Amino acid sequence: MPPARASRFLDAARGRAVDRTPIWMMRQAGRSLPEYRKLRETHRLVDIVADPDLCAEVTLQPVRRFDVDAAVMFADIMLPLAGMGVGFELVEDVGPVIAEPIRTPAAVDRLCVPEGEEAAPQVIAAVRRVVAESPVPVICFSGAPFTLASYLIEGRPSRDFQLVKRFMYQEPQAFERLLAKLAAMAAGYLAAQVAAGAAAIQLFDSWVGALSLEDYEERVQPHTRAVFAATSGLGVPRIHFGTGTAGLLEAIAATGCDVVSLDWRVPLDAGWRRVGYDRGVQGNLDPAVLLGPPELVRSRTVDVLRRAGGRPGHIFNLGHGVLPETPLENLELLVETVHAA
């Protein structure tokens, strides 16, 4: 595998020509890996993310097993919220559960904005360990303001986002202050991860697809843009990730990110035209395809590459994360097919 300083992943993220299309997968660390499942027999998720050594070990497991072109930190987007004074629990098979959801302007005003590393010092320590050992570039990340606000207001994962939208409409000034605080935290947290050695950063706006274009542009986009503006001088590629974003692609591209991650609901060639060829794209195989037979995995992978057309700036990834039931053989086939194309 190429070292970080001569990485096809970093070259592609910067729009440069590469010898082979780079690939990494969201949630490549954990879930489907037997070595991770063995670790989970004796350690809870909360134990792993709290321990820099365990976190580093899980992050490096897929790098050792697969010929991926980047390592992505094993962490949770909720972790830096602890530095803002938020109590939460990572509940198995549920997700993050907030102890006291934000439902009033006063609750927004009580949130503090930690300085960089103070948001989640255990993650920064883990980043340093991974960077020291990884033969490929290390990707770090933060939750985006809207997605973090969704968890804070809803109190747990949601399907319809009624509570966060109601707060957005009924308390627009408080919602604005909340997203501004989250944007400031995210920018500092990302900068701290880069200082620890991260070679690229990704902003996860997982639930932004729940918004209309009007609400996104008026109420959310300015805060996402603020994160990318604050990180523009860090010297690393910056990726925007979201799902269900087919109606928002042009607005997302206007936030200032270097790479737009596309999910499987839009063909890669059509999505790239819409975000503009002046930036890269990441994606966009449906993770569920990896549950199918090998011939389907191969044909769908080749189709994504065909749509990319060999244009500089494509990073192969899934449209979302690896599903726990994914056969290892299909993950290996995916990586081999991308690199052989």
List the helices and strands and how they pair.
Elements: H1 8-13, H2 34-40, H3 45-50, H4 52-65, E1 71-72, E2 88-91, E3 95-98, H5 105-109, H6 121-133, E4 138-143, H7 145-154, H8 162-170, H9 172-195, E5 200-205, H10 213-230, E6 238-242, H11 249-253, E7 259-261, H12 268-275, E8 280-282, H13 294-308, E9 314-315, H14 328-340
Parallel strand pairs: 1-4, 4-5, 5-6, 6-7, 7-8, 8-9
Antiparallel strand pairs: 2-3
Structure characterization notes:
Helix content is 45%, strand content 10%. With 341 residues, the protein is α/β, with parallel strands linked by helices. It has a single domain (4-340), classed as TIM Barrel. The strands form two sheets. The chain has a seven-stranded parallel sheet with strand order 1-4-5-6-7-8-9. Mean pLDDT is 96; it is low at 1-5.
Structure, briefly:
With 341 residues, the protein is α/β, with parallel strands linked by helices. Helices cover 45% and strands 10% of the residues. The protein has one domain (4-340): TIM Barrel (Alpha-Beta Barrel), CATH 3.20.20.210.
